[in-house]
Amino acid sequence: MAENGEGLGTVPEHERILQEIESTDTACVGPTLRLPLECVCVVWHDFHVLPTCWSPEEGAAGSPQQLGDECTLRSVYDDQPNAHKKFMEKLDACIRNHDKEIEKMCNFHHQGFVDAITELLKVRTDAEKLKVQVTDTNRKFQDAGKEVIVQTEDIIRCRIQQRNITTVVEKLQLCLPVLEMYSKLKEQMSAKRYYSALKTMEQLENVYFPRVSQYRFCQLMIENLPKLREDIKEISMSDLKDFLESIRKHSDKIGETAMKQAQQQKTFSVALQKQNRVQFGKNMHFNGRIPEERNEVELKRAFEEEDENEEEVLTVQDLVDFSPVYRCLHIYSVLGDEETFENYYRKQRKKQARLVLQPQSNMHETVDGYRRYFTQIVGFFVVEDHILHVTQGLVTRAYTDELWNMALSKIIAVLRAHSSYCTDPDLVLELKNLIVLFADTLQGYGFPVNRLFDLLFEIRDQYNETLLKKWAGVFRDIFEEDNYSPIPIVNEEEYKVVISKFPFQDPDLEKQSFPKKFPMSQSVPHIYIQVKEFIYASLKFSESLHRSSTEIDDMLRKSTNLLLTRTLSSCLLNLIRKPHIGLTELVQIIINTTHLEQACRYLEDFITNITNISQETVHTTRLYGLSTFKGKVAQTACMSACQHLSTSLMQMLLDSELKQISMGAVQQFNLDVIQCELFASSEPVPGFQGDTLQLAFIDLRQLLDLFMVWDWSTYLADYGQPASKYLRVNPNTALTLLEKMKDTSKKNNIFAQFRKNDRDKQKLIETVVKQLRSLVNGMSQHT
User: CB within 8 A of 480, min separation 6: which ones?
Assistant: First the structure.
């Protein structure tokens, strides 16, 4: 063994491997050893361990082979002789040493183990005896204490019950008020007394619930209160929505009632003012001796009628129940959510305001459409005014002013748009009266309405325009029915009838015996009467506009001036342009115009009597009358005469009965036209600009120049050009006249074919005729 040990000692690597085997976990012996399969198996067998990666059932083809391949150690299989054998011997020696140590340890502890077992055997008998004694003693104690235990448990149970009863009574006394208040809350909810229910909830939360907050039923009640509050909010909000829908439906009725009250109050005030004026006049007339009893009776009657009207007219409170608003406001105030309610109410009312302000598309067709529009708006703002005064903070004056300004802008825009479609002056007048009543009604509730009266001035201009259009038709009818002859009268009665209609004064005519004639025709008194009717119609619109008499006087004079200078003058101008109006009619029209102009001072007196504004006032507008019209009549007559003369001369040349015309006749005709042009250039009537009157003969002049100069090449070359010298010469006219001259040359000059100049001229005429015919045919085809 010494030799073996010495031999083994010569291999230090074997020692190192054995140390690693001793110090390494058995699961990692394989990687540590890196031995061939036989060595590994020996190690495992000798050290009583098995590899974790291999089992005997796997056989040689399993993991040991793989492990053998992996555990090959180069130091064991090197070139040293007997290396494997030496290592195995060293390994056996090491195993024997470990076996000896294990045997020594077992021998050392074996005697102590035997002694301990012996002692336990001795104690077992005593322990069994002690167990029997303890069990017996315990049984005796149990039997002796059973009755005591029963009695003690009974006492304990009775005392617990007594304490519980006392506690229950105390707790019930504490809980009963809570339950009573909660029952009261339920009754209030069922009776829809929501405001009282909210007050009860506050008492429960602040006073009663803190006393019993530890109980589950209290927690359930506490958890249920928010739901009840939400239910109350939803119910009150539903009532508010019903209220809003109700006032939306009743807005027109409310507005109609308010406007009727305003109208009755205004009527009564006017009646009272008239009564005061009558009393003042009677006092002045009778020098203080007036039958006062009669005045008192009339005034009493007026008051009685006012009282009857007040009884018949309902108030806004009679038409609408405002309790849902008050109730909802109080509920939201108690809930601390007043701002939400205010915002919702204002938002919904603004939406309703937009709906109310939206007019119907055909509103302008009838006065009922405007009335319905106004009553709805008045009803809306009457409700808002009522809410403003009976609630605190729900709506404010700033809010209503903002809402009114928004509405007023929309109202003005709507009225301005829809009134522009009104062509009937009666409808415009009714619209004006509605706007005035609408403005007076809302002004009585404190809303500013100055912009509405400014709008009325715009509508007044439109009203005047509709009046002017209406009276234009009246004037046309009068002119159509006139015979344009002096008015004949055969007796005094007829004379007075005419004088009553028209302020005519002529001493010479008065001295003449019957029968006699007025210088003007029948249309003059009719025109004068209609002008007065126009003034009355214009005055109707100026009433109730809160304007001074001076402003009304100025408006009447301006509108009358427009009637005279624009409408009447336009009708006269259209009249004198009609083809059936001859010189005789034109003379009579001038005479009629002169008398109408002279009557303007009587119209001024008529307006003065209406407005009580003296004509000597500095800013009084004067009536222009028809002073500018008589120059226009003369110009129109002169222009019409020249155009008629030019047309007649042209028709004379182109008359189908005129078969032939010579060049000499054309030259003489040219001299006649020159005389006409000289007359036109002599300015027979002042006021024509430049050569306006000479343009009446421009067609004849260009035609005659073409034939006198014989400039056919220029005419044909420049035809259709804007700068053509003969722009107004029609090819048909030139062709007709040229053919008449060609026929004359053939008939009168039988020897013309023997003269070269005449033959050339005849050929030229024929050539021009062909070209003109081609031009005319081309124009016909193009057309």
Answer: none
- Supply 479's token pair: 């002119």
For range 677-705, the mean pLDDT: 84
Tokens of 595: 């008398």
Helices (H), 287-358: 292-312, 316-319, 323-334, 338-357
CA dist., res. 165 & res. 510, Å (int): 132
The string of DSSP codes covering 722-749 is TT-TTTT--HHHHHHHHHHHHHHHHHH-
Amino acid symbol at 384 = E
Closest CA to 247 of 101, 431, 385, 74: 385
Q: What is the pLDDT of residues 417-441, one digit of tens each?
A: 888 888 888 888 899 999 999 999 9
CB 466 within 8 A of CB 428: yes
Which pLDDT tens digit goes with each residue over 559-608? 888 888 888 888 888 887 787 777 778 778 888 888 888 888 888 888 88
| CB-based contact 424:466 (threshold 8 Å) | yes
Rounded Cα–Cα distance for residues 314 and 312 (Å): 6
pLDDT digits (tens, 9 = 90+) for 188-237: 888 888 888 888 888 988 888 888 888 888 888 888 888 988 888 888 88
pLDDT higher than threshold 50 for residue 7: no
Tell me the three state secondary structure of residue 360: coil
> Torsion over CA of 549, 551, 556 and 560, rounded to 10 degrees?
150
Residue 294 banded pLDDT, cuts 50, 70, 90: very low
**Amino acid code (one letter) for 454:** D
CA nearest to 462, candidates 354, 535, 368, 541: 541
Give the C-alpha separation, 653 to 732, whole Å: 13
Amino acid identity, position 306: E
Q: Tokens 């003005």 label which residue? A: 412
Quick one: how far is CA 513 from the chain centroid?
75
Phi-psi region of 336 (alpha: psi -120 to 50; beta: other; left: phi over 0): left
Backbone angles phi, psi at 424, to 5 degrees: -95, 120
Q: How far is CA 367 from the centre of its chain?
A: 25
When mean pLDDT is compared across 228-237, 271-280, 495-504, 587-596, the lowest value belongs to 271-280
Residue 148: count other Cβ atoms within 10 Å of its Cβ: 9
Give the CA angle between residues 697, 701, 702 to the nearest 5°.
Answer: 125
Q: Given pLDDT bands bounded at 50, 70 and 90, which one contains residue 148? A: confident
CA distances from 124 to 89, 135, 333 (A): 53, 17, 89
In whole angstroms, how far apart are CA 725 and each of 701, 703, 705? 11, 10, 10
Dihedral sign (CA 289, 294, 296, 299): negative
Q: For residue 269, what pLDDT is reported? A: 67
The overall pTM is greater than 0.70: no
pLDDT tens digits, 115-128 = 888 888 888 888 88
Q: Mean pLDDT throughout 636-650?
A: 82
Per the DSSP assignment, residues forming a β-bridge with 489 are 516
> Does residue 455 contact residue 550 with C-beta atoms inside 8 Å?
no
| Amino acid letter, residue 763 | K
CB within 8 A of 177, min separation 6: which ones? 208
Residue 427 has what DSSP assignment? H
Output the furthest CA–CA distance in the chain (Å, rounded). 197
Q: Which residues of 308-332 are buried (b: 16+ CB within 10 A; e: fewer)?
A: ebeeeeeebeebbebebbebbbbbb
Query: Rounded to an integer, what distance in angstroms lies between the CA atom of residue 566 and that of residue 465?
Result: 11
C-alpha span between 689 and 647 (Å, rounded):
22
In one-letter notation, the amino acid at residue 512 is Q
Local structure of residue 620 (DSSP, 8 states):
P
CA–CA separation, 770 and 428 (whole Å)? 66
- Whether the link from the prior residue into 515 is cis, omega within 30° of 0, is yes
Which among 496, 494, 472, 484 has a CA at the least distance from the CA of 593? 484
Per DSSP, 60 falls in state: T
List, for residues 129-145, the tens digit of each pLDDT value: 888 888 988 888 888 88
